[in-house]
């Protein structure tokens, strides 16, 4: 529940978790350099009663043509593999699931995987070959998936276009003008009165006396 409440504040994921052990969500790709930029990809995560010692599962509800996504929408991604080293796959324990990871780490890893596929251990060999040999056609396939995903965007939902938070609204409080910089601020409260000029003259006289003593 703590992880859910934290993620619901993020604008790159839209979560519906009526069942705390089964989340329906949408991941939004807002990286302009990604082939899947602009996508609203629906998925689901499930959690066992062993969580966080056992990893959750993640599956795209509409499978994407991607080197690391199986035809049923499941992912081939190290962070969702059971803890510990796997000699057969060559994955280090640090790459696999651990109770320190958390849901946000999984979702961010999925987004990174969409942007940067691991083609050396593909779940979809054809997609891996296309990504390697014909990037233009691969990108066109990704764009079709993006356009298809936009049909799932709720009518009242505004898709984010940046990870940056919007600027705060401009204050109408005129008291804020007190803090506006001006030339007077750099006088440190000084004025043009004779009293202040006198203080400056005294300072210069004292300085001349000090300089004179150094010469002697």
Structure description:
- With 216 residues, the chain is α+β, with helices and mostly antiparallel strands.
- The protein folds into 2 domains: 151 residues, Ubiquitin Conjugating Enzyme (Roll), CATH 3.10.110; 42 residues, no CATH class.
- A 4-stranded antiparallel β-sheet has the order 1-2-3-4, with no helix packed on it.
- Helix 3 packs across helix 4.
- It is globular and about 45 Å long.
- The N and C termini lie far apart (79 Å).
- About 5% of the residues have low confidence.
Strand-helix topology:
Blueprint: H1 2-7, E1 13-19, E2 22-28, E3 40-46, E4 57-60, H2 103-115, H3 125-133, H4 135-149, H5 194-215
Helix percentage range: 25-40%
Strand line-up across the major sheet:
1-2-3-4
Shape: globular
What's the CATH H-level superfamily name of the largest domain?
A: Ubiquitin Conjugating Enzyme
- Tally of DSSP helical segments: 5
Largest sheet: 4 strands, antiparallel
């Amino acid at each position: 529940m703590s992880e859910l409440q934290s993620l619901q504040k993020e604008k790159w994921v839209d979560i519906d978790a009526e069942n705390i052990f089964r989340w329906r969500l949408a991941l939004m790709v807002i990286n302009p350099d990604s082939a899947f930029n602009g996508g609203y990809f629906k998925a689901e995560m499930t959690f066992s009663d062993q969580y966080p010692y056992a990893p959750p599962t993640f599956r795209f509800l509409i499978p994407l043509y991607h080197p690391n996504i199986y035809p049923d929408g499941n992912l081939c991604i190290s962070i969702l593999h059971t803890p510990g080293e796997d000699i057969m796959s060559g994955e280090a324990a640090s790459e696999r699931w651990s109770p320190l990871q958390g849901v946000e780490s999984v979702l961010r890893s999925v987004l990174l995987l969409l942007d940067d596929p691991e083609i050396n251990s593909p779940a979809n060999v054809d997609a891996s070959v296309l990504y390697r040999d014909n990037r233009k056609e691969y990108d066109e396939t990704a764009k079709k998936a993006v356009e298809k995903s936009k049909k799932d965007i709720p009518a009242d939902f505004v898709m984010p276009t940046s990870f940056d938070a919007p600027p705060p609204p401009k204050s109408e409080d005129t008291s804020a003008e007190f803090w506006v910089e001006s030339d007077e601020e750099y006088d440190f409260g000084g004025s043009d009165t004779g009293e202040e000029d006198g203080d400056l003259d005294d300072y210069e006289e004292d300085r001349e006396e000090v300089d004179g003593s150094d010469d002697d």
